[in-house]
Amino acid sequence: MKTKKDYIPSPEHFKNLTIFREYPGAFIPKDKVPIDKIKISKKHLDFPNPVDEEEVSYIVNDFCLEGWEPIMIDKDYFLTDGQHRLEAAKRIGLKYIDVIIDNTEQFIQK
User: Fold this and answer.
1) Partners of 78 in the beta sheet?
2) Could you say which of 23, 62, 70, 74 has the lowest number of CB atoms within 10 Å?
């Protein structure tokens, strides 16, 4: 998929899935985050598997807006989930992507 757009918003239903009534603020949807602000470190990834070229190509070539869910990052902007979606966004030429900020550490008992 080639696009002249620099941003494709995620459908709202994905953002609503992250609302936990018992822990408000645990996951914070944020629209239009600059892709170059997102940092990648395998130690922060939930699933630190290598990026699968076939999966990225599938996302790019068979792009489906209904499946374009936000990626997950932590409060320091490290990617925690969505490395294939992030790579696809870069290949499409996007400069911005929707994210869900995982803020659950404030709810964890120490």
Assistant:
1) 39
2) 62
Rounded to 5 degrees, φ, ψ at 16 are -70, -25
Contacting residues for 69 by C-beta, under 8 A, at least 6 apart: 10, 11, 14, 82, 85
Q: Whole-structure pTM over 0.85, yes or no?
A: yes
Q: What is the mean pLDDT of residues 83-89?
A: 97
C-alpha to C-alpha distances, 11 to 4, 30, 34, 51, 66, nearest whole angstrom: 20, 12, 18, 24, 6
- Spell out the domain ranges in the chain: 12-102
CATH of the structural domain 12-102, one choice from 3.30.1120.10, 3.90.1530.10, 3.10.310.50, 3.30.565.10? 3.90.1530.10
Mind listing the pLDDT tens digit for each residue in 43-78? 999 888 899 999 999 999 999 999 999 999 999 999
How does DSSP classify residue 10? P
Amino acid at position 81, single letter: D
